[in-house]
Amino acid sequence: MRLPAVLLLSLAAVAPGETAFAAETFSTLEERMTDEEFRAAGLDRLSAEELANLNAWLARRNVSTRPAPAGGSQGFKPDGLFGDSGDRGRVVSRATSDQDEIGVGTIVALENGQSWRITDGNLSLSGGLAGRTVTVEPAMMGSWLLKVEGYNRALRATRVR
Fold first, then answer.
1. Domain stops at, among 14, 44, 60
2. Which DSSP state fits 11?
3. Residues of the chain whose pLDDT is less than 70?
């Protein structure tokens, strides 16, 4: 049986090497999702054995990075960017780091104290980056897009500070 595309995409988004809780604290998909989310992902169509195999696969790969929320199946909602209950709103600030080229691995420092590492894409800047307005917006599957004033290209980024 084929897994729903939403589930496959969510599994692909898990970063390799993330620290995870021990297997005994693993919470199943049923515990993490509301009934509505569970049905929307098509997991209700899996047999009990298929669902158990999927949960075992997730547990073996340490996909779980948090225990299930208290109170059972009320749904799993991440606590913001670094577990601080922050929202995923748009960030607008000026760049303090000065580079002429931005690419994978480059750290972009902002006046607001945040730093973002570019994870995908590249951009050549005429006149450097320092002082330009940088906008970081939430994108699909928990990712972020970084845009530099005056350029139409968006780069994927991860917050490092």
1. 60
2. H
3. 1-26, 62-87
Distance CA 81, CA 69 (A): 17
| Range of the structural domain that residue 96 is part of | 91-159
Q: Looking at the domain assignment, is residue 134 inside a domain? A: yes
Element (H, E) at 55: helix 48-60
Whole-number Cα distances in Å, 19 to 24, 63, 118, 137, 156: 15, 9, 21, 26, 22
Alpha carbons 131 and 73: distance in angstroms, whole number:
47
d(CA 89, CA 112): 14
- Identify the three-state secondary structure at position 101: strand
Q: Please give the model's pTM, rounded to 2 decimal places.
A: 0.47
Pick from 76, 51, 58: nearest CA to 66 = 76
Tell me, yes or no, whether 85 lies in a domain.
Answer: no
Apex 138 CA angle, 72 and 120, nearest 5: 115
